[in-house]
Amino acid sequence: MFTGIVEEIGRIRQLEEVSKTAVRLTIEAAVVLDDVQIGDSIAVNGICLTVTDADDDAFAVDVMPETIKASSLRTLEEGSSVNLERSMPANGRFGGHFVTGHVDGTGTIVGKTKQENAVYYTVDIPPELTDYFIMKGSVAVDGVSLTVFGISGNEVTLSLIPHTVSQTVLGNKVEGDCVNVECDVLAKHVHHLVGKQHKQN
């Protein structure tokens, strides 16, 4: 489980193709390596991945075909920057919202405008995910916990404060870029339960 509060920006040192649809990533980092152990979970752009190797300045993860197909990891290359967050410790502070690291799909940034000290991003999301979005609800975009400020059809508008812009990879994203989207897990559970109850009635 994660919080959506990014700890640092890492850099892809090596992208090794294990097969046509599976890769091994070596990611340069600092903060998340402080107490890392083999088998630990680290969210990379919001995707929960397992550490398979680590040294003083980098760690490695294996990315399976399904993850490649379902996420923006397919757009990464050596030198790309990524958001990193360690899994939440049981005694840690909870600053964002419940983020599982299991992305529901990808969205496309279709608008980016500055509004005083904030930057507004409009993201086009898959139609099948729209039921999980409500005004002032939560969403994780590339692993960043954000609040929904606007909904119009398949597009959602999100507001980023200066800190989020400067401390995550979202600050450098532009129109046309692909982002990982994880809907609020509580909204997904409620939607599932209500839908199941409706079918029974």
From TrEMBL:
Record keywords, A-Z: Repeat, Riboflavin biosynthesis, Transferase
Top EC class, one word: transferase
A molecular function GO annotation: riboflavin synthase activity
Lumazine-binding repeat boundaries on the chain: 1-97, 98-194
Catalyses which reaction(s): 2 6,7-dimethyl-8-(1-D-ribityl)lumazine + H(+) = 5-amino-6-(D-ribitylamino)uracil + riboflavin
Protein EC: 2.5.1.9
GO biological-process terms attached to the record: riboflavin biosynthetic process
Lumazine-binding domain mapped to chain residues: 1-97, 98-194
Annotated Pfam families: Lum_binding
Pathway(s) the chain acts in: Cofactor biosynthesis; riboflavin biosynthesis; riboflavin from 2-hydroxy-3-oxobutyl phosphate and 5-amino-6-(D-ribitylamino)uracil: step 2/2
Keyword Transferase carried by entry: yes
Annotated PANTHER family: RIBOFLAVIN SYNTHASE, RIBOFLAVIN SYNTHASE ALPHA CHAIN
Subunit structure: Homotrimer.
Role, per record: Catalyzes the dismutation of two molecules of 6,7-dimethyl-8-ribityllumazine, resulting in the formation of riboflavin and 5-amino-6-(D-ribitylamino)uracil.
Record-given protein name: Riboflavin synthase
Species this protein is from: Lentibacillus cibarius
